[in-house]
Specification:
Elements (H helix, E strand, L loop, with lengths): L1 E7 L2 H10 L3 E3 L2 E4 L2 E2 L6 E2 L2 E3 L2 E3 L7 E10 L4 E2 L6 E3 L3 E11 L10 E2 L11
Antiparallel strand pairs: 1-11, 1-12, 2-7, 3-6, 4-5, 8-11, 9-10
């Protein structure tokens, strides 16, 4: 299996890409039934609320590791107390790893090549 390192502009972009490849699905919940407006007689369409859920993030053919935010190793800490003096900076984007024999085309625009990967799949 090949590991692909992915960086999305935001968590929302990751969730949209995951939905595009079928990892995330919406099963809307009916909030209000269709009804007639008593004053005008017009049909008021039903009201649904989004209900997103995740499918399993791995099979025997592929696996996904959603990492999210990654921090640089540049924080400053008090050597005696361990207290954070300067917080580490954030590496731009929302991160995930994908392992498989091929990468879905919807994820190709997000491939990055880290010098030192933050998290890797076990070999």
């Amino acid at each position: 299996m090949i590991t692909y390192y992915l960086r999305f502009p935001s968590q929302d972009d990751w969730e949209q890409a995951a939905a595009a490849i079928g990892l995330r699905v919406n099963n809307p919940i009916l909030i209000e039934e269709e009804k007639l407006d008593p004053d005008t007689g017009e049909v008021i369409p039903p009201v649904y609320e989004d209900n997103w859920s995740w499918l399993p993030m791995y099979t025997h053919q592929w696996g996904v590791d959603e990492i999210g935010i990654i921090y640089n190793d540049d924080g400053v800490y008090d050597p005696e107390t361990g207290e954070e003096l300067v917080p580490p900076t954030i590496i731009e984007g929302w991160h995930a790893n994908y392992a498989g024999d091929f990468l879905p085309s919807e994820l190709e625009p997000y491939i990055v090549t880290p010098i030192s990967p933050y998290r890797v799949f076990a070999s």
